[in-house]
Specification:
The structure is a homodimer of 418-residue chains.
Chain A (H helix, E strand, L loop, with lengths): L4 E7 L1 H4 L6 H11 L4 E8 L3 H14 L2 E5 L10 H9 L3 E3 L1 H13 L13 E3 L3 E3 L8 E6 L2 E6 L3 H19 L5 E9 L4 H7 L1 H6 L4 E7 L2 E10 L2 H19 L3 E4 L4 H11 L4 E5 L5 H7 L8 E6 L3 H8 L3 H7 L4 H15 L3 E7 L13 E9 L2 E8 L4 H21 L4
Helix pairs in contact in A: 2-6, 3-4, 10-15
Family (chains A, B): Belongs to the CinA family.
Pfam family, one (chains A, B): CinA_KH
Protein name (chains A, B): Putative competence-damage inducible protein
Chain lengths: 418, 418
């Protein structure tokens, strides 16, 4: 069977001005690779009729599937529909049903629909429409001789939903995709990237199918196992064998797979054990709570938290004693322990975490930016409190403190204390 | 003077597999834009001789300057030098001086140089060599008829250093670049993208220097004014004139410039007016507090918040009455008003915002996912509470609720009530 060749075109002058990176191309490339569709080219063109037209011409000359993002908005710079209509020599007309959906979208949000939004209901003759539940512009699939064009919005969340809900299933069915490429990510926490890589270096170097690739992100690291086979079942079997070898070496640090976040796993384990969680946040300012609440089903385990950003709030809301604050300061082990204890008591939960420190850039109470005290509290006999020195970078320090707390919770729940 | 057209080619199969995003193209695009060089195309090709060759062919046919990143490594997949040699029909030979520099690089780092590294000292006849102080592969500038090819490593830090230290100065001098391009972004909130564009449509269409481009992001919209002139001073003067015209039309929605976020502006205005803020968050789960705390200096205005995720927390921590919760539900106007009032009283601030709703995906109390009640509260006579229907998307709904609260706060502070 001839190998399917795909191409991705990003439309938008903001891409050529360097204002944003073409992350859509990356995401789509990976999604197609997982379907066994090879991407051979990316193009980026600006909001210019002639150049978009030529990009379609070039793509058609060499690719079976062309995915286009951008240029579906309501403004005069948005030309993708018009150019595709010209290029494929098919009429562009205003579709009643698409217009009705667009009007309903605005009505539901109590927003006024502008005159120029109407062009987003323009549809190409014989196109397959792809609904956009997360935005205004529907996508379209247009078959032009031997090339399939798919046009989608440039907004990443809208494009991804459209790809996952409609485009990928369409491609899979239409092209009866045979070879599959399957990837599985194994996620680790509590071990550094270089140490992990050293533990499995020989496995990474030896393997050709599956391949193993390390990926690092903030405060955690993953290994991506990628296998290619004729069936998903066979690919998964290859992956399982590889995964078993990896876990035999470094499994004690593995917490989850694929897109499971450490927060997902922590919430799930709290739920499994029937435990509840509260928090008291100072420098993290709600970011830890946000991470927990982002997990669907968090309400089973998370009762709430107190963002005691000021000392006044620490005393009045949390009940941290003035004596503690005066004797040791807000940024201290004593204070962070009291914060956690109070949060646990006030919210009546099984465990609580607390954060206090110096986000920066200014130092505070003699502590430099990046200093964080963290506490995980169960009861008077079972708690953990430590000081960390993160970086002089407000954002990174706050994020790393949150990640560290999730790491502590994870290992706490793994042990018998949970 | 004829407008210089540049093109950027990213070489690397990992880009086509979606393993990394083409951030090099973004960075280079912005760097060139600042020099007054217009980028009209991006291409990405894999590690394949034929396709790289054709990408050079295409680029030469339409661009004056072609910048290529990637494919300069020591492996067999690294083909850029070889292909450029073939394409420009110039010999590739091993340069003694380049080899000596390479050997010195490895020696300095106590690393062994592999046999395959030697090809990184291969040089194209008549090329201008660009030293790479941050890595192994030198770059090259090759002039082929009317097109200037610049080949550089794909490693971002190495490429950027090479661009800043050698390539940009070379381009500036060679092409006697006179012009500078300066951009300024004007940021708006409280008006939709299509409506804003309609208000300034004629200005967008008329203007050629500066140009005005609309950019939308979640819950807000911006206009980017880009001017080209011989000096930065002159460019800024053009921008100011254009900005004045825009603000005369839609200035009432403008809140900031360039990278100022709405949270930055809200915190600054609260500080200017000597006002303090608290919050009570349910579905937003700390995300609003996080947005405020992310602004340096937030401690001047933000005392803290209560993330009352459970009804128990709403009653015990916030003091929302059980009667209200039983009569109207947690997701109601009555409850959100009481939450804000209680947060304001307990934290003793001038204003408070509160959020309650249904993040989803499940409906709650008969309200569908995306339903949010928001309240901005000053006192019994001065408060605002409304219901919104956002989208059935947990993340987006929570983010939009936060953005809407910031919008309300902004306009509240703009009026005399602040």
């Amino acid at each position: 069977m001839q190998q399917l060749q795909a191409e991705i075109i990003g439309v938008g002058t903001e891409l050529l001005l360097g204002q944003i990176a073409n992350t859509n191309a990356q995401w789509i490339s990976e999604a197609l690779a997982n379907q066994g569709i090879s991407v051979y080219h990316h193009q980026v063109v600006g909001d210019n009729h002639d150049r978009i037209y030529r990009s379609f011409e070039l793509a058609k000359s060499r690719s079976d599937i062309v995915l286009v993002t951008g240029g579906l908005g309501p403004t005069d710079d948005d030309l993708t529909r018009e150019v595709l209509s010209d290029f494929t020599k098919r009429a562009l007309y205003q579709d009643k049903s698409a217009l009705a959906q667009l009007e309903a979208f605005f009505k539901r949000r109590n927003r006024t629909m502008s005159e120029n939004n109407r062009k987003q209901a323009n549809v190409i003759e014989d196109a397959t429409m792809i609904p956009n539940d997360a935005g205004t512009a529907p996508g379209m699939i247009v078959i032009d001789d031997d090339t399939t064009f798919v046009i989608m919005p440039g907004v990443p969340t809208e494009m991804k939903k459209m790809m996952n809900d409609a485009v990928l299933p369409y491609l899979k069915e239409t092209f009866q995709l045979q070879d599959v490429i399957v990837s599985k990510m194994v996620r680790f926490i509590g071990i550094g990237e270089s140490q992990l890589e050293m533990e499995v270096k020989d496995l990474i170097e030896q393997q050709s199918n599956p391949t193993i690739a390390p990926l690092a992100s903030d405060g955690e690291v993953a290994l991506r196992i990628t296998a290619r086979a004729e069936t998903t079942k066979e690919a998964n079997r290859l992956i399982e064998a590889s995964e078993a070898t990896l876990l035999a070496r470094v499994g004690q640090y593995a917490y989850g797979f694929n897109s499971e976040s450490i927060a997902d796993v922590v919430v799930k384990q709290l739920a499994n054990k029937g435990l509840t969680l509260a928090a008291a946040e100072s420098l993290t300012g709600g970011r830890f709570s946000d991470a927990i609440v982002s997990v669907p089903g968090a309400s089973r385990v998370f009762k709430g938290s107190i963002v005691s950003y000021s000392n006044e709030a620490k005393m009045k809301l949390l009940g941290v004693s003035e004596v503690t604050l005066q004797s040791f300061g807000a940024v201290s082990k004593e204070t962070v322990i009291e914060m956690a204890k109070q949060a646990k008591d006030k919210l009546n939960t099984d465990v609580a975490v607390s954060f206090t420190g110096v986000a920066g850039p200014e130092p505070l109470e003699g502590h430099e930016a990046g200093t964080v005290f963290l506490c995980l509290y169960h009861d008077e006999e079972h708690y953990r409190a430590e000081k960390f020195s993160f970086v002089n970078h407000r954002e990174l320090t706050r994020t790393r403190a949150v990640k560290k707390a999730l790491e502590w919770l994870y290992y706490y729940l793994q042990s018998n204390h949970g």
